[in-house]
Write a structure and sequence with these properties.
The structure holds two protein chains of two kinds. By secondary structure, chain A is of the alpha/beta class. In chain A, α3 packs parallel to α6 and α6 packs parallel to α7. The model of chain A has no long low-confidence stretch (mean pLDDT about 85). Chain B is of the alpha+beta class. Chain B has two domains: about 200 residues, no CATH class; about 290 residues, no CATH class. In chain B, strands 3-4-10-5-9-8 form a six-stranded mixed barrel. Chain B has a two-stranded antiparallel sheet with strand order 2-11. In chain B, α2 packs antiparallel against α17, α12 runs parallel beside α17 and α14 packs antiparallel against α17. Chain B is elongated, with a radius of gyration of 34 Å. About 10% of the residues of chain B have low confidence. Classes of the chains: A alpha/beta, B alpha+beta.
Amino acid sequence: MPLPQISAVSIQKSYRKGELKVPVLKGVNATANKGEFLSIIGQSGSGKSTLLHLMGLLDSPDVGEVRLDGQRVDNLPAKTRDELRNRVFGFIFQFYHLLPELTLQENVLTPLMIRHPIWTYWPRRKHYREMALEIIEQVGLSHRLKHRPSELSGGEMQRAAIARALIAQPEILLADEPTGNLDSETGGEIMDLLHRLNEEQQLTIIMVTHDESVAASAHRTIRLAQGQMENVEEAA
Amino acid sequence: MYKYLLATRYLRTRFIALASIISVMLGVATMIVVNSVMAGFSVEMKDRLHGVLADVIISTASMNGVADAGRWMDMIENIGGDQIDGMTTSVEVYGMMTFKYANEPITRPVTLVGIEPRGKASVGPLKEYLGSFQDGLRDPNSEPNWELTDEAKEYRENWVFRGSWEETAEPNWPEFDGTPEPASPVEATDSETPNFSEGTSPAVTPPKDEIVNPFLAQEAAQEKESDPTAPHKGRAYIGHGLISYQMTDPKTGKMVDRLMVRPGDDIQLSTVNTAMPPGPVSLGVTVVDILKTGMSEYDSNLVYCNLDYLQDVRGMVHPGTNVRDFTTIQIKLKDYSQAGELVKKLRAAFPPDMFIVQTWEDKQGPLLAAVEMESAILNVLLFLIIAVAGFGILAIFFMIVVEKTRDIGIMKALGASATGIMSIFLSYGLALGIVGSGVGVGLGLLFVSYINEIETGLSWITGRPVFNEDIYYFSEIPTMVSPWMVFWVALGAISIAVLASILPARRAAKLHPVQSLRYE
């Protein structure tokens, strides 16, 4: 049995609000294998976004481990974790989070610009620009290259965010309520895109949502309530 | 790569940061203008101080001087011959000057310096300071001397004949009625200087030809018989400040200069001779020229007269040998940087109980030091302006970091390191500093090159002159731009901008990605 690509083991996490310690995750396990489409569903406040953030190494668990291919990664030095986030993970968020000063193309290129210092990036900038163009075509936004985020619709912005997440050629895509801000039709388009990527490129996707129908389209679902798992369901 | 893209993009899109650019720019421009003008004034002032003094000055400890300048000058030649460009000797002593203006005698204390004009011109500017050369009344290529210009001769003839005509006229010509005589129609210019002899009563002023020193009385009497308009044996250049005053011309409303004594007039000088204790000597001299150096310290004190006459009158000539005493030797060097060395050698050769050897900077030490200190303090104050601009940058950057909290969260999610985030804002500060400094330097240099036009404009707007030519003796505001000064000011401003961005940058670096992403 191959090791799961990513696993969160016995995760506990609390947040501090002044003197008060608010427990968010009280012992959660989650795994995903390569090419799997995993959804995490729960009410707001159930800790699902926190779990996603911990798996993406945006934060560290108080207790427990996060492992990639069996190797523990949550206790690595900050620099290594930064690199992992850049190379292994791709993120998309409910509110898109594109940088408003940059054009669509520049936004998509951001992970590469972060990865390479200026002296490595500059000579290969043309090559990178072509990579960006390819991916932008894949998500269907070639006609919006030079536009700023303020000039894009919600759906277009989310597709741009997906393109940005993909350019780094990640192994795992982490999506935090990607359709939360979109109408059902546009949301459906996004979900189609995600499924396509999952199937065609064997891209592991872990998605957080509170929408049952969206969650149901995944291979597997993890249900969280008050910081604890309820059960793990397979897709029908 | 992302850091530079973002830093420059922030520079272009955030107009509020323009406010801090402007304050940096103004601070830099102000520093450049003020430093240039102060340097310009300072250079001019040093030139003028230096001009009168020459490079190295040797003065005798005693006012009575030391004998035989020639021998000592030969010694100087031996010690530093190849470094020396010119040398001259003089006698410096204090005295009083008396002249008549508007029927009243006016007395002033003066520093009386006997010089040899050609020698003096070889150690420093002299022609440039003399009124007749400045006004173009003499051939600019001629050497300064003790002869009257044609204009001065004509002026002298007029008042001499007027005076002598009055003496032979009917005695019921009013002696003095208390009011100054109106301007004489024979005078070509608009000066209101009444003639020396008009309204003169012998009881008030000694007759123009009377000289107390009996040694010369004989010669004077002979002169009088042969040519009544001939000038005295004693000749003088008088400092402009001694014999002039400022008044508002009722016709034009502007400040004008009025001369009380003009070339061709006679004045009385009193000083002391070399007896022990010193006795008084009095000499009448004819004014040949007016001295205008541009430094009020000199123009209000100096009277140059002919060296040999002064030596004769004071009794500084040794009977029989005709060896003459001197009190000062002035030396001009080819290369002033050698001065220190030469002074050391000269001090060894000239006995210190008899002589004091100094460079001109030694002599004027306190004044120069004061100017330096002024400049330093001013620079500190002006730099505070830029420091204030720095605080503006600090505040604005904090605001921007807060505004960008979510973006910082995303970048961290995408893999940006904390130091990377920090350097975005440091680069932003650097870019602000460079733009602000650059524009400030441009603005400052522009202001300096057009400063006289700007001064005219300001005077017109405010209705009063900003820079009064007569007070400052300059026709234009002097400026001197030093490239090093510009460099340091720009560098200082850029450093302040970068320093100011450090705190906000660190704050940005420390933001927690998850909390930043949730930031509303």
